[in-house]
Specification:
Blueprint (H helix, E strand, L loop, with lengths): L3 H11 L12 E8 L14 E6 L3 E5 L10 E6 L2 E6 L4 E6 L29 H8 L1 E8 L2 E10 L2 E7 L5 E8 L2 E15 L13 E2 L3 E2 L1
Parallel strand pairs: 6-12, 6-13
Antiparallel strand pairs: 1-2, 1-11, 2-3, 3-4, 4-5, 5-6, 7-8, 8-9, 9-10, 10-11
Length: 214
């Protein structure tokens, strides 16, 4: 969980189906970045990541270029197809979800030790999750915006979702005790965008490895 990009990539290809289904009814564009004292300004970890979602089957995750690793990662999910591409050398992997449930799951926090209830929080459905699962816990400023805090607590793990007065997510923070494990700041959140099926199609001009089961 060292970067949002890694967390999203893992989530897209390996997260189990949660009890609730996150299915944004219109094309949604979300731009986020990781923030915190351990993230150096200008570093790869500080760069924005753009995610598109539509319905329960479609997701597209665009990372910033990472020159040090010679990577520029793109992940496209159009269930049951999953394409992972390095745009630097135009190579990639194609995976097939064996089912029987075909859902693109994009939890915001995932990994070892994360409570299962926390992993039900997905990009694209933050407000609904916060209002139905969290409890109001005051307000604070995030990215220059005053936002209401909705919190969940399990043992020493705490999850906070911050929503603006317009009901848009401003920040998500995940803690273990007093230690901040992950903080995600929202730079853009657009819903109701015109449909663009090309976002979720197989990328052209890419050399893919043989298809492998998910």
């Amino acid at each position: 969980m060292k970067s949002l990009g890694l967390a999203v990539l893992v989530a897209l290809v390996s997260a189990p189906a949660a009890a609730a289904t996150c299915a944004p009814p219109t094309l949604t564009r979300i731009v986020t970045r990781s923030v915190g004292p351990d993230i150096q300004p200008g570093s790869f970890r500080a760069q924005p990541i753009t995610l598109y979602r539509k319905g329960e089957r479609f997701a597209r995750n665009e990372e910033a270029p990472n020159p040090e690793q010679r990577q520029h990662l793109l992940t496209i999910v159009a269930e049951p197809d999953i394409w992972m591409v390095n745009q630097v050398d135009q190579t990639g992997k194609h995976m097939l979800d064996p089912g029987p449930i075909f859902q693109a799951k994009v939890p915001i926090v995932a990994g070892l030790g994360v409570p299962a209830a926390f992993m039900e929080l997905e990009f694209g459905c933050e407000a609904a999750f916060a209002r139905t699962r969290g409890r109001e816990a005051g307000a604070r400023t995030a990215g220059g915006k005053t936002a209401k805090i909705y919190a969940l607590q399990e043992g020493d793990r705490r999850l906070e979702v911050l929503l603006t007065d317009q009901g848009l997510p401003a920040e998500v923070a995940y803690y273990q005790g007093v230690r901040t494990i992950l903080t995600i700041r929202y730079d853009a959140y657009e819903t109701g965008m015109p449909d663009d099926p090309t976002l979720f199609q197989k990328p052209e001009g890419v050399t893919f490895q043989a298809e492998v089961p998910r």
